[in-house]
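Schema walk-through. Below, the input block comes first and the output block second. Nothing else is stored per chain. Lengths vary across the set, and this one has 320 residues.
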Amino acid sequence: MNTEAAEQFSLLQLERTLVRFKIPWVVFAIVLAVSVFLLSSKPSLELGSDKLLEYAVHDAVITGYVLLMWPLSKFLLTKSLASLASLAGEHPAPPPPPNSAREWILPLAFGLIMALIDNSDTENFLSLSPWLFIISGVITYAVIAWAVYAVFVSARQVTRYVSNITLAHVFDITPFRPVANWSLSISAMIMVGLSISLMFLGGDFMDVQNLVVYILTSLMGAVVFFAGMWSTHALMANRKEQELRRINEELDSLHNEILANVKNRELESAQALLQTSETLATHKARVEKLPEWPYTFGDLGGLVSSALLPYVLDMIFKIF
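--- output ---
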């Protein structure tokens, strides 16, 4: 399966809908971001000119950022699926994500609940401004919730493709590297999104509320990083365990043969078997060092760097 075919297999309902109506994803993202800005501009200005940046601009930028980053994540996802599909042998490609109503219901429900919570202290719902805030909030929170839903659906797709793998070579992790790249991209996008949000909202980074948000978001980024690779890790660990089991069985058999030959004074045969046993033991040591995750130290460095990004940016803003 090539990348283009994998992309078609992994399309979600929202993506299929935009394709059906021939609406480019970038246009859709910009329209939603501009809509959020226009909806929240009036009520933001009523609270003060400084609130325009904190509310209207912030929500519009976050909405646009989440949607515009999705194509990059999708590109890395399709590369992962195509790479995994190449190891599936004769197995057919897994089915595309189901046409589930949850893709619409869950984000919209989450958006409505969060928007109502944000505006729960509003006293006059008879005026237009609170409703504009609620509508813009529903859009922003629904976009974020949709992105989270899409990541989980994508992770399930990776798991389905991994379950079909039959041709994986225990020493070659190259086909699994795209999965690590995709997982890292999701984690990095989460931390960059947090950095953008903190820049617009302002306040002291060391405030308890900001620290709690930062720590929870960093933990979520780390969980997403490892969770996205979990099925791949399970496969790699299982293949490694199988190879070690085979080696141990051969070593046990060789050990018994060596002892039998020594007992029968067949020393030349015993010596030949001993050399074979030493070679196999060397091979075992090599297998034991094989990684069980597709990431590299560079990926871990990228994960740590993305987690530290909000703190670094806060220090830069304080200096300058």
